[in-house]
Amino acid sequence: MLPIPDFTLLLLITFAGLYAGTQNTLAGGGSFITFPALLLAGLNPLAANITSTIALFPNQITSAFAGRKLAGGVGEVSLSKLSVLSVVGGVIGAILLLNTPATFFAHLVPWLVMVATAIFTWGSFRKKPLHATKSMSAPLLSLVQLLIGIYGGYFGGGIGFLMLAVLTIAGQQVRMAAATKNVLAMAMNASAVVLFTFSSQVNWFAALALAIGGVGGAFTGNWLLHRVPEKLLRGFVVLVGIVLTVWLFLR
């Protein structure tokens, strides 16, 4: 797991972070780039997942604070309550992950990637609602957000699209839902990152390289925002997810 820094490899990981940060800014799905990059760098699936979560966190902070004025709650469920549920779920998911043996997680991760790819594909290409709807009660919304938080702390692939779908179904306008899910994603990953920081599975050289690339990707993504077709980027992520799923099942 890169015990001695291989600078050529770290440079390649930085470029993976740059693309992932750009991808997150433009269309989402950056973890579909960082996770396989860390696997190819020699990390085991558990270490790759934990390291990727930590490395992408600065990018999530930027996204959350940039749109915080648009974020809000849904009816009786305030943004504060949704944030608390996200933090609690993130803690539960992170604790479950830290207590999962690396060998068991290695067998589980192909299925997680397959599910995450399906979620990403559905979220990317489903027909977006033109108007807000109100077909989810406050208790159900709270329960669903808690479950998404647990999934986010454990693996996290596709959580943005899950939250975007849930929030729009619950009654938020799409633009507000997009800002809210960024805040909630930061909240659930903040709790996970705090716990992951003390894990021996973290590869700090790789995490730093990815984080530097991710911050650069945020600026690159903003510059490319109106220059690259979003569907093309999402299509590439779906392709990566499919190839990664097949590779993980066969390796």
TrEMBL record:
Stored InterPro entries:
TM_pro_TauE-like (IPR002781), TSUP/Inactive_protease-like (IPR051598)
Q: Give the membrane topology, semicolon-separated if more than one.
A: Multi-pass membrane protein
Q: Which residues cross the membrane?
A: 37-57, 78-98, 104-125, 146-170, 205-226, 232-250
User: Which UniProt keywords are present, listed alphabetically?
Assistant: Membrane, Transmembrane, Transmembrane helix
Give the CC-aspect GO terms: membrane
Where is it located?
Membrane
Principal subcellular localisation of the protein = membrane
Q: Which PANTHER family match?
A: MEMBRANE TRANSPORTER PROTEIN MJ0441-RELATED, MEMBRANE TRANSPORTER PROTEIN YJNA-RELATED
Protein name (database record): Membrane transporter protein
